[in-house]
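Translate sequence into structure tokens.
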Amino acid sequence: MTENMIDILGNGGIMKEILKEGTGEKPLPNSKVQVHYVGTLTNGKKFDSSRDRDQPFEFVVGKRSVIQGWDLGIPTMKIGELAKFTIKADYAYGSQSPSKDIPPNSTLIFNVELLGFEAPETWDVIFEKCLKKKELGNQKFKEGKWQEAENEYHGAIHKISEIPTSSLNEEEAKKVNELTLVIHLNSAMAMIKTGNFHHALSHCSQALAIDPKNSKALYRKAICLGSESDFEGAISTLKFGLEVDPNNGAMKSKFKFYMQKKNDEIKRKREMYQRMFKKK
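Result follows.
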């Protein structure tokens, strides 16, 4: 190993040689990086090159969208840096062969230039973007544009999932959970309006995973179950909901409604069986 070789992990799995120094900061986890690279085997055979395509390659660090050697190696670079990475198979493709140009168990060599990167958004920036999407969804909902409202809620849910909750303090985590809960509740209502009870039920379940005693989630779940003729499920859900919120008039009304539906179904089946036996 030459003097300017860096053993990134200390086990020889990812070796780095700086060919040209860079400047500034290094990418943080979840940064979107832009690189140019040339990939070769140890025998010098080139198997891939962004330079040949004249198109930089972008990926988000730490999302496992690239080989582990890149996820661990690129964050050690500065903007403008050109480095040579020698990556053993365990941190590349292992015993797999992703293409005919890369044999199984290959050590790969990459000359990588870090062109730039976009730092990850902080949790509060993501939170504000989700809040705006939720509010836009609410506006669409008020206008009766149920599917457009759901599209905004879906975008908010997707965005809020980018927040690394493990790094939040108790108060921050509470705010994220509360917003996530509201978005799922609103999504469920929008889907109920469109008649998409299957997806509405999924949103209710996710809301209840956050707050198992949320009366709105329980009520909307009951509507979804009842609309799919699962009267037993609807009644059971409303029964629990009334234990949580005994004075909820809407739940009481729906409970009576689905009890009647259940009794009508029992009566219908009884009459059907009676007719069958008479025929016999």
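Note: Residues 123-269 form a domain with the Serine Threonine Protein Phosphatase 5, Tetratricopeptide repeat fold (CATH 1.25.40.10).
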